[in-house]
Amino acid sequence: MRIVVVSAGLSVPSSTRLLGDRLASAAVAAAGADPADVRVIELRDLAVEIAHTFTNGFPGPALSEAFDAVSGADGLIVVTPVFSASYSGLFKSFFDALSVSDPEALTGTPVLIAATGGTARHSLVLDHALRPLFSYLKAVVVPTGVYAASEDWGAEGLNARIGRAAAELAALTGVTPPAAADAVPRQVPKKDSFQDVTPFAERLAALRPGG
């Protein structure tokens, strides 16, 4: 299984890259794959070539290689920092350039969406920005997205979301071992309190004298 991580983090070290690495490690574990099959693409290293793509009409060598890696991935993990309540411009520009180069590059590709930000208030970026973008690119977006705010690092809950999302990604690639698939938590439906209804006539009869 070939997993490609696209990280739009700008700083070194980057929490965005850290989240991508943790998601990739969890996906490898869930799939029972070889860690050597993970490729990380740092968009900050491709920023100049991405900009040139829009002015000269074709990608440079490094960007072209990144496009090939993304389009050939069995599973894709995309992570962006949040800017102005949405994905970063660098992140969007990369996928814009990819879709111009090959409109079908992500068709049918399982994609795990993730984002980092300073506050949990931006967590909806997963559903109002990232999910629609990759649905438009005809990718198959895993049900669970992962958002990590500053306070999430080291806090309870982040590891569980990472594990669940990674297991879903591995399952969509078709290589999840049965044990890993069974480890994905499943929601137990709550009993409907209105399911067992006593007919009104029966209730009325119980109120009558001798009823």
From TrEMBL:
E.C. number: 1.5.1.-
Signal peptide positions on this chain: none
UniProt cross-references to PANTHER family, sorted A to Z:
FMN REDUCTASE (NADPH) (PTHR43408:SF2)
The question of whether Thylakoid is a record keyword is answered with no
**Gene Ontology MF terms:** oxidoreductase activity
| Span of domain NADPH-dependent FMN reductase-like | 1-153
Per the UniProt record, one Pfam family is FMN_red
Which protein is depicted? FMN reductase
Its keywords, alphabetically, are: Flavoprotein, FMN, Oxidoreductase
Looking at the keywords, is Repeat present?
Answer: no
